[in-house]
Amino acid sequence: MTVTAASTSTTTSSPVTSGPTPGALVTVRDLQVSYGAGPLVLDGVDLDLYPGETVALLGSSGSGKSTLMRCLTGFAPISSGTVQVSGHELTSLRRSRLRDLRASVGQVFQQFNLVGRLSVLTNVLTGALHRAGPINAVGGFTSADRRRAMELLDRVGIAHKATVQARTLSGGQQQRVAIARALMQRPQVVLADEPVASLDPKMSHAVLDLLRQIAREDGIPVLVSLHVLPLALEHSDRIVGLRHGRMLVSAPTADLDADRLEVLYADGTEEADGAHR
Ligand SMILES: Nc1ncnc2c1ncn2[C@@H]1O[C@H](COP(=O)(O)OP(=O)(O)OP(=O)(O)O)[C@@H](O)[C@H]1O
User: Which of 66, 69, 110, 198 to mutate to test the pocket of ligand 1 (most atoms within 8 A of CB)?
Assistant: First the structure.
């Protein structure tokens, strides 16, 4: 795993960096975001994501985790700063190029976002549409697409459910299907926004194991937001943490423990206090 010099210790302010870091697939610099005329919800955020690493994104409710993820797909109102994905500056891309770039970012969500009445296999196949565009949907999927979708279902351990409706699966099984769908895009990076928030502890470990395995085997970065510190400490190579929109922690997981991460939750809001333990 590669880490930046700025990420080798817990920081109390944003690391001072400029330009893309060699080897990073995602580089965010001095990012500021506000919704409408509201206050800054991200303020001076820097982030690098490297091939093969799993990075846990922590922070109390409202600290800006989802907004940061949205920035990586061009769906957040960026006020200033830069976001580079695979060497492309996202903030200056035309719409068609932005669509291409989004296709290279696989996403996994808390609520799985499957189409419940469609088969598991078809749900995975829809991942191919991100790259091919909607026109391909008219012509249907190719046999190569189907073969790949079955291989991915096998990889996530759920090929035996390929023909059943997605809504008949358990939460953990549905999240595996969602991961297979994201992989169908042949992503260069995977963003998982609270992927285990709806799962029981056993399933949570299994899904996070799977995501980390994918990062390593495919050599892509996986950024996963979590609310439970022990899960982050067990299933990540590096932890970054937001508090009130500022990146307060950026360090290898091996250098961190729950006490050092408390800084993210001091003065926390809503369910943050205590819920992360
Ligand atoms: N579409 C929006 N319009 C206006 N404000 C928004 C919007 N989305 C998020 N916010 C605000 O931005 C801030 C950060 O929200 P965000 O959802 O990124 O936090 P989060 O860390 O992901 O929270 P949670 O852990 O609860 O999901 C919050 O104050 C939130 O109210």
Answer: 66
ipTM of the complex: 0.98
- Identify the helix (H) or strand (E) that includes residue 275: helix 272-275
Does ligand 1 have an atom closer than 6 angstroms to the CB of 60?
A: no
Q: What is the reported pTM? A: 0.89
For 108-164, write each residue's pLDDT tens digit. Answer: 999 999 999 999 999 999 998 876 655 455 457 889 999 999 999 999 999 999 999
Q: Would the CB of 61 count as within 6 Å of ligand 1?
A: yes
Quote the CA–CA distance of 57 and 250 in Å, as a whole number.
9
Asked if residue 34 has its Cβ within 6 Å of ligand 1, the reply is no
Stretches where the chain sits below pLDDT 70 are 1-20, 131-139, 267-277
- Please report the sign of the dihedral spanned by the C-alpha atoms of residue 242, residue 205, residue 69, residue 55: positive
How many C-beta atoms surround the C-beta of residue 159 within 10 A? 16
How far away, in angstroms, is 66 Cα from ligand 1 center?
7
Query: Which atom of ligand 1 sits closest to the CA of residue 270?
Result: 26
